[in-house]
Amino acid sequence: MYSVETDRLILRPFITDDVHYLNYLHSDLDVVRYTSGHTRSHNENIEYIRKMLELYSQNLGHLMILRKSDNKQIGRCGFSYFYGINDGDLNWFYWGSPEAVKKEGDIFQYLEPGYTIAKPFWGNGYASEAAIAMMNYGYNTLNYDGFSSLVNVKNTASINVALKMGTLSPIHCMLNDEPGYDLRNVKNG
Prior knowledge:
The chain is α+β, with helices and mostly antiparallel strands. It has a single domain, classed as Aminopeptidase. The protein contains five helices and nine strands; from the N terminus they run ββαααββββαβαββ. It has helices at about 20-25, 30, 40-55, 125-140, 155-165; strands spanning about 5, 10, 60-65, 70-85, 90-95, 110-115, 145-150, 170-175, 180-185. A hairpin with a 3-residue loop joins β1 and β2. The longest helix is centred in the first third of the chain and has 15 residues, at about 40-55. The model has no long low-confidence stretch (mean pLDDT about 90).
């Protein structure tokens, strides 16, 4: 398992008891509107933690974000996989597992840094701080050459975070059956 630290944040692995926080975080449709697009049940949050625990063996997976000043849980951030196909024109991406892919074609796996911040903590730069820390972890610890942020075209806040991470020109894609951008980031690029 891995953890990451910034000036204001600690990103640490999930533990089973974190399901209660995820029940809160994932119950706010404003928070999950551009990620899953729907609120998650308690059982879905248990499955989410199980999936993250599996990814930790690869030094991947989302981490719980804690604010250092008061140890308050404020969100999640980390690397996970999207699965997709190319229809000849666009890449179509779906989160979770290859079974989530709704289109026919050869399925490929795509590593993506993602995050979700609880609404009371929006507008404080926590998403950018956590995402940049994960980007640096990917480059400096995992030796990645690059990766992509997959963002719904309506999600201007996440587009701004991706721009702060130094993304290149957006590439149009479909993300969970909605128009999206593949915002690529290349080490020293």
